[in-house]
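Marked as duplicate of an earlier ticket. Keeping the data here for the record.
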Amino acid sequence: MTTQDQPAVSPPADTSLANRYGGQKRPLSRAAKRGIAVAGLAVGVGFMAWVSTSSAASGVTFKDIGFSTVDATQAEVDFQVTREPGTAVKCAVKALDSKFAVVGWKVVDIPPGAADKTADGGRTVAQRVALRTESPSVSGVVDNCWAPESGK
């Protein structure tokens, strides 16, 4: 046989794969793993601090107290709002049907002077809101409350 008649010899698979995709990756060192863990922990703690302070910074909290259906076209929602004294607040209140679809919605203005005579210095306001509904409702809740920015 001549050299032209001999079949071509392919390189071993290990060599061709290493040439194509690169060699084996080195595992991370212990120091690198520790650094990644510390960085991840720091990011997690920072995120939790941001979440807890951003909700507390608004200064407005609300609590659902009760709900009643007056008839097929009206519902009443009772709730409390706690905010800094002298702060006007808006609350979005909704009525839901048995499939959790919104059947009534209203944004309620709570003026800065409206407050219960409570031990918290007038921070808590009790509200009862009547909502018109397009079909019978089975529950009513406060969706959100916020202090509108001055000048709006």
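See parent ticket for discussion. The chain has a mean pLDDT of 83.
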